[in-house]
Amino acid sequence: MEEEMLKCKRLFVSDMDGTFYLGNTLLPGSLDFAMAVHRLGARLVFLTNNSSRTPEEYIRKLEKMGVDRKLFQVYTSGEATISFLKRDFAKKKAFLLSTPSVREMFEKGGVMLDDFDPEVLVLAFDTSITYEKIRRAALLIRQGIPYVASHPDINCPTEEGPIPDVGSLISLFETSTGRRPDHIIGKPDPAILKMVMEDFDCSQEETVVIGDRLYTDIECGLKAEVDTFLVLSGETTRDMIPDRHSYKVVENVGSLAKKIRDHDTV
Question: Which Pfam families match (predicted)?
């Protein structure tokens, strides 16, 4: 039973956009879910591909929506991209497309940024993007400079509807230059999930992944060979689910909270 399986988990790795909240509104059952994980004695880590904000900004956003800071931690594809650059492009100067706060995070994280003579191009979710940035990036990509993207999400869910995310910009640059990124860091690459598992010293058997996107969240969990739950509160609808699949499907994270509570009452 799923209830029995969940009681053995020490690490719940959840997406945020479309899974825990939408825009500035918590989705049904989200707070119950966070509290149920806490009562279970497990850790809740929000692993998001959205690289438009820093972890601190996400923490403030969640607190503003009424989620107690002690209930969760945040890890972003932006942080994972910094780790990747420091490992594979150490001391290389980067041209970064990002929001101002994420740019500051990269600089504080030890990545050298250079808008004029870069050695690697990095594409994050830049909600402050301008045509000049697009023009400059396209020229660099066309020149053959190493090209890194923080994640592949095509759209970012909002209360008004989906808006273009990094995956859409990847398509734009591919149309213009014929090139795709040499490296895409975030989900579905299981390396980002394994970083989180290592940080919390949890095994595959002790970890569960929750998300709303088949091609990022769910694929990441399956590639990492951990138990994976698809929620239907975001991008994926029931008619998009293939007849044969190896993940579990619930309406929302509130459904998981109920399963955890049902176990506690047995």
Answer: Hydrolase_6, Hydrolase_like
How far is CA 244 from each of CA 17, 118, 128, 239, 240, rounded to the nearest angstrom? 26, 46, 41, 13, 12
Residue bearing tokens 């692993």: 47
Tell me the pLDDT tens digit for each residue of 84-120. 999 999 999 999 999 999 999 999 999 999 999 999 9
Separation CA 203–CA 194 (nearest Å): 9
Region label for 16, one of left (φ > 0), alpha (ψ between -120 and 50) or beta (otherwise)? alpha
Q: Give residue for tokens 């989200």.
A: 30
Fold of the domain spanning 78-184: Rossmann fold (3.40.50)
CA quadruple 112, 118, 121, 124: dihedral, nearest 10: 40
CATH 3.40.50.1000 residue ranges in the chain? 2-49+187-264, 78-184
Is the domain spanning 2-49+187-264 CATH 3.40.50.1000? The answer is yes
Say whether pLDDT at 54 is over 90: yes
Q: What is the DSSP string of 18-87?
A: TTTEETTEEPTTHHHHHHHHHHHT-EEEEEE---SS-HHHHHHHHHHTT--GGG-EEEEHHHHHHHHHHH
